């Protein structure tokens, strides 16, 4: 049997790396893990990345920057991008930058096999020796935040795809911020987002499904709604009523798409309550029910449209009594 083929799995999510290792376990590979693009480049220079599975949204050096360096330094790595950013433009860009293919998250063993076969890579791979145990990846015990950062990354990408199609734009996506916070911090956090956005244009919408409940809040940056109106070729003066309608329309796209994609991954069908515009500096209902929010799973996402001064923050808050159900829903991942 030949020596194992050196493979790098580059993703800032330990869950995503764990899933990819599981998808590749049938082949004779020597796997190196990297949590950002710079670490992947170092592994490639060391001859450890004949095949590189590369995420796009990562700290320190993202996937786009890593692809640029690989091409600039002519590193001998076959790159397959594996990402939750499924905008057609994202796929087009990475293929133009030298990636041989694109695999859509969430990672699925059959999808990985089919992709490797279509790229002509599968014939290079040998089956893993029967007597060779599959090495367990490090950090197998993941915190709730680790799971929901990756799940949110995928759901965020689905929402961005919807928004990109609606406005015919490319949406830049940051790394989701996932943390457990005290419910008393919710009002202060929303206030800080409003200050950073320079705007009080905020929409709040409750959601519920399979013992999981919470609130989604969308905060637009100053002048973003006016620019969105121009993108959508809305005629006439930007009246308060028209701003409310635009806020409702974009919120419906982002919140519905996010909850739909998240629910698909954890097998929950979320229902959504009526959206509410928070006028002035009013606060969401979570601030009036502290007993349900003593410990809150808080997910913060950002969306920014390329070549336009348009940005918004989406905040997802899950109640304390949802945490056990959220944890249980990760058991199959």
Automatic annotation (TrEMBL):
InterPro entries, per database record: Bact_response_regulator (IPR050595), CheC-like_sf (IPR028976), CheY-like_superfamily (IPR011006), Sig_transdc_resp-reg_receiver (IPR001789)
UniProt cross-references to SMART domains, sorted A to Z: REC
Residues recorded with modification 4-aspartylphosphate: 55
Domain of life: Bacteria
CDD domains, sorted: CheC_ClassII, REC_CheC-like
Hydrolase found in the keyword field: no
Ranges of residues in domain Response regulatory: 6-120
Keyword DNA-binding annotated: no
GO annotation terms (biological process): chemotaxis; phosphorelay signal transduction system
UniProtKB keywords: Chemotaxis, Phosphoprotein
Family matches, as Pfam families: Response_reg
Protein name: Response regulator receiver domain-containing protein
